[in-house]
Request: fold
Amino acid sequence: MSYVTHLEAAIDGTHLPHNELQTLHEGRPLWVRYDLQAVDAAMTKGAVAGRAPTMWRYRELLPVEDESKIASLGEGMTPLLRCEQLGAALGLNDLWVKDESQLPTGSFKSRGLAMAISRANELGVERVAIPTCGNAGGAMAAYAARVGMEAFVFMPADTPIVNQLEAAYYGARAWLVDGLITDCAAVVREGTAEMGWFDVSTLKEPYRIEGKKTMGLELAEQFDWSLPDVILYPTGGGTGLIGMWKAFAELAEIGWLADARRPRMISCQSDGCAPISTAWEAGERFAEPFPDAATAASGLRVPAAVGDFMIIDAVNESGGQARACPERSLLSWARRGAALEGIAFAPEAGACLGVLELLVAEKAIHPDERVVIFNTGAAQKYVEVIGSEPLPRLPQSVDWGTLSSQRESADSGVRVGARETGWAPTAPGTPPAGVASAP
Reply:
């Protein structure tokens, strides 16, 4: 049974029916709305605790009506890990990481695409398409394969090679495009009438938010239905931050939170692609497209987000901030975090750590506050940037004294968006102009 009542336009509050396919209203995203009184009457904490440890344990707050249509690979619950060594390096006493890298497709995209594909399957969709510059393409391909749906994936030509290969590996028709994710989105948009596919781009259908909000539901449950003081979230399209803020509001309305305190939401970007932080710092609600977007964190390379105002609204309502870390520090923080805690920090999480360093220095975060960082993907999917320096070869005659010396990490010479500085491994083959088949 679904407790969804309607869809609501985020830009002006217009109500739309939820039992038919919907995309945008006035070019902007839709919220899924529930009968929360009915949810409160039907759902108990005890019942949730006794269910399988996947994101579907919160089914009364999710939009799927027919459970036989669910596309699932066992997504959630992901570990919430206390990080004392990393916290000490940053001057914090209560630092945690929610590690989304352990989801079925190696990133938080599993949540959103599992929900989007499940609902599309329920509404009769047979063909889907997505523009992506990172993990979303592989996740969509995997969940589409799970329910026998045809999938098309369009990626910038410099998308990390693992992301390229996994989309094709799961059976999608995967293509490289010269340009940015916005150029890939144009291909999807222009092909809709001819190809008859359903566009599952970030926030261009209403259900990815509902999958991503399960991060907030899980976090609340893992902290015994209380919330941290601060959440730092890497922001490209921003669906996760928006979804968590929605989750906290719904939990508060059904009376499940231990107190009225909500986290300060910190949107984290790189200064190589910072449309949200630029708009927020200027006091604007809508962001201008970011020129010449380039960052080693491919998931952050979103120069224009359709949900920009939703991100900034959540940040402002929470008393948070939208900030960008220097691109030069992003990878060094990701590597340092990995070495200190053994967590496979993706470059996007490095942006969170870089922003956190700034906020601690500014005394915007107190050392004793409870702080949570989201690691949204696995470092192993970014071989171009984490493996840019070859390992030393052990000589036949070993000098044992040299084994304890530490090499400095080389943070220069990595592939940065559409540019390269120094040496870095690149994807095999050079795509011709326009659209080329992925390897």
Observations:
- The first helix runs from residue 36 to 42.
